Amino acid sequence: xxxxxxxxxxxNLNNKDLCPATxxxxxxxxxCLTDALLAAAREDRLDPETLRTRVAQGTxxxxxxxxxxxxxxxxxxxxxxxxxxxxxxxxxxRVNLDEELEKLALAKKAGAHTVMDLSTGGDLDKIxxxxxxxxxxxxxxxxxxxxxxxxxxxxxxxEELDPEEIFAVIERQAEDGVDFMTVHCxxxxxxxxxxxxxxRVTDIxxxxxxxxxxxxxxxxxxxxxxxxxxxxxxxxxxxxxxLSLGDGLRPGSLADANDRAQMEELLTLGExxxxxxxxxxxxxxxxxxxxxxxxxxTAIKIEKAVCNGAPFYVLGPLVTDAAPGYDHITSAIGGxxxxxxxxxxxxxxxxxxxxxxxxxxxxxxxxxxxxxxxxAADLAxxxxxxxxxxxxxxxxxxxLDWEGQARFALDPECVRTYRAEHxxxxxxxxxxxxxxxxxxxxxxxxxxxxxxxxxxxxxRTAG
Length: 463
Known about the structure:
Layout: H1 24-29, H2 35-44, H3 48-57, E1 60-63, E2 74-77, E3 83-88, H4 97-109, E4 114-117, H5 124-134, E5 139-141, H6 143-153, H7 163-176, E6 180-183, H8 189-198, H9 207-219, H10 224-227, H11 229-239, E7 242-245, H12 260-278, E8 283-287, H13 293-306, E9 312-315, H14 327-341, E10 345-347, H15 360-380, H16 384-398, H17 402-408, H18 412-421, H19 440-443, H20 447-453
Parallel strand pairs: 3-4, 3-10, 4-5, 5-6, 6-7, 7-8, 8-9, 9-10
Antiparallel strand pairs: 1-2
Helix pairs in contact: 4-5, 4-15, 6-7, 7-11, 8-12, 13-14, 14-15, 16-17, 17-18
């Protein structure tokens, strides 16, 4: 069945009668090309039928809640371009809705493909709904944050949280139209015991993982997201919500990278991913964290093997613990290596990652750094459009066409700003203040003819 020729509607399925599936994965398995899949395929310039096969297998996810327009969908996984997520959100110490909207705008300007609302302060339902209304990008959340924050507002500690409250928040967020959701299902009693024996340097650095670990140890009970995983899957299936299985025991320092606790959690996530797929629910796996350069490729390959090729969503990874204030750079270095090794989705890390709540400018810098990492990996992975972009900017550089360079740059405004702030002596528009008339491209013999033969292209802009 191929409804390719049917008219497109603002729904996820081209035709409910021809393809009555509930989720993107079920539709793909039924041979249907949904509107969301077609939109994602167009953006990545992929063959829709190839993409459908990968969605059916679970090696690609289509981030597209059935509560939001299909045109907003993004594809993450095998054969897709590397995607970048931007984290937004308030804290109990700072709640400013205008600032959150500014973060959203700057994240989009920097080229983020998705955003996540990690708010823990203020009216969390209002903040999430505001971002959903304002965003034309898929939006993710971490529901345990809201469950804990609401309990705290009533004077109740984490230990007193009822599992029903957690599932109520999950249902509420899914109903609002959240496209993907981080759920720390792999933080089990067995994994915590293995971590205790491991004697980590930084213990648990995941907020969601720490909340659940504290609840489990205080109650002497298993993680409700693990114990009642079938219920979570049922909610995800109802709203076509992609489950992002969170790395609650990810390493928070290089010394803890790829340790036994992390591997224990990963094994559990691989089993849960298989369960979700059997139910027709899309799933991706979240990963480290802090990882030294020489261990990144191994970490990616282990995840892909254990989780049967499920899309891998990584935070960084940061390649050194020694650069607070510059962690957008340490994460971009690790992100480029991770994506080349097979990671599919990079979570942008801001310069203030370990120091304070990111400002709008921090969000922009974090996304740009991850975009550069993603683009570098796309080049290494053979993405033809990325290679075309680099060739075009090089042709413009050869032609001394500065506006052409801006047009094909990842951040055109940055190029134009530097040009305006660094004028050349004498105002020659063909040179820059680095070399002036000593520019190699002006001095080299025969290049005038070469520039005339291969002028700067006038193709579409990057991004």
